[in-house]
Design a protein that fits this description.
Elements lengths: L11 H11 L4 H8 L3 H8 L7 H10 L26 E4 L5 E5 L9 E8 L18 E7 L2 E5 L2 E5 L4 E4 L5 E4 L6 E8 L16
């Protein structure tokens, strides 16, 4: 059984646009169903901004697809056990260089959202990542590489074994300005009724 991506290229923005237009749905209508701004959704479809997994979950639900895009609804075992060979993943961000590997096959009824995030080199080169906000606590544990974390205006360099744990309402972002791969575990408490948002754009990351 192979891993499931959002489409052949792994470009989630293109996949969202194809699903939306295939259903005859406007950006305004998708925004109404998800609570995300049409401006943010337009930028997401053009791969100009990333989106947090909780926002993608709401988009997937509005488009009536599984969050993995092409992955089928979870079977009985995958509601409890997620096999490494069948782990859903989502490519996100410019050029699809941010990969979210889901550690649970059935996220919607869960209070925790665990995943392994991989940022390939060349995805973002700025020294300070663009910040975003979301509800719920977040814990990060670096597995490989050096992760740049921006948190409330301060920039941290996290090495393998380093951990960050912070509360809701703190603008933060990730980046990999190095020449190597970065992998880290992320666990969020999530509130399906709320989305991610940028500090200056309610509803957007």
């Amino acid at each position: 059984m192979s891993r499931s991506g959002v489409d052949g290229k792994g470009r989630i923005g293109e996949r969202i646009r194809d699903l939306r237009t295939g259903r005859g749905m406007s950006l305004a209508e998708l925004g109404r169903r998800t609570g995300l701004s049409p401006r943010f959704l337009s930028r997401l479809e053009k791969s100009r901004v990333p989106a947090a997994i909780d926002a993608l979950d709401r988009i997937a639900e509005a488009l009536n697809v599984d969050i993995g895009g092409l992955s089928p609804p979870p079977g009985r075992e995958s509601r409890i056990i997620t096999r490494s060979c069948a782990r859903p993943f989502i490519r996100n961000g410019p050029d699809g260089r941010v990969i979210h590997y889901m550690l649970t096959g059935d996220i919607r009824p869960r209070k925790l959202l665990p995943r392994i995030v991989e940022i390939l080199p060349g995805d973002r080169t700025e020294e300070e990542p663009a910040p975003y906000l979301h509800d719920g606590e977040e814990l990060i544990f670096v597995l490989e590489g050096i992760l740049t974390l921006s948190l409330s205006g301060k920039v941290y360099r996290l090495n393998p074994g380093d951990c960050a744990h912070f509360s809701p309402g703190q603008p933060h972002g990730w980046a990999n300005p190095t020449g190597g791969r970065v992998r880290f575990l992320v666990v969020n408490t999530r509130n399906p009724g709320e989305g991610s948002r940028g500090p200056n754009d309610k509803g957007a990351k």
